[in-house]
Specification:
With 163 residues, this protein is an all-alpha fold. The chain has one domain. Helices cover 82% and strands 0% of the residues. It is built from four helices and no strands. Helix 2 runs antiparallel to helix 3 and helix 3 packs antiparallel against helix 4. The longest helix has 70 residues. The protein is rod-shaped and about 105 Å long. The protein starts with a helix and ends with a helix. The model has no long low-confidence stretch (mean pLDDT 78).
């Protein structure tokens, strides 16, 4: 049981980047709440100036400035959530595509090596492929070619997956 608790503690530890990001989020949220709360307070106080022409004009001008700031704060928070979700999804797709590309590249290199080995069986080490007369492939070469064909089909399937 002690190992489970230690493992749980290790998984729940925050990295320094996460701590900094959390602090930024906390400060931003606090400032946003203060701006919106102050704007609402000013809007409520504006009702007290109804009928007083000089004060209502000044209150209206200040309230218009604060409404602009409150709009920015609200727009930031409502626009940020979908943007963060889209960015996370896009990053996952990039990571998947990169991993898939690495797999395809590695398998293509293996296939190229196998093709080279089959070609070496047809042509002796000192001669070129053009100078060798075509010969019927023996059973081992046929098996090698079937293996390469199957690997190439598997490679094609892998490249079509997760598009």
């Amino acid at each position: 049981m002690a190992n489970e608790n230690e493992t749980g503690k290790e998984k729940s530890r925050w990295t320094p980047e996460q701590i900094i990001q959390g602090f930024k989020e906390l400060v931003t949220a606090l400032l946003g709440v203060l701006v919106v709360a102050y704007t609402l307070r000013l809007a409520w106080n504006t009702f007290d100036y109804a009928g007083e022409t000089g004060k209502i004009t000044d209150a209206k001008d200040i309230l218009m400035l604060m409404l602009g700031l409150a709009g920015v704060v609200v727009g930031y928070y409502f626009g940020r959530v979908p943007a963060d979700a889209s960015a996370a999804k896009a990053q996952d797709q990039v990571n998947t595509a990169n991993a898939q590309t690495e797999q395809v590249t590695a398998r293509a290199q293996v296939m190229a090596d196998e093709v080279e080995q089959v070609m070496d069986k047809f042509a002796p080490a000192g001669s070129t492929a053009k100078s060798v007369s075509p010969q019927p492939p023996d059973a081992q070469i046929a098996k090698d070619l079937q293996k390469i064909r199957d690997e190439l089909r598997s490679l094609a399937t892998l490249s079509r997956r997760r598009r």
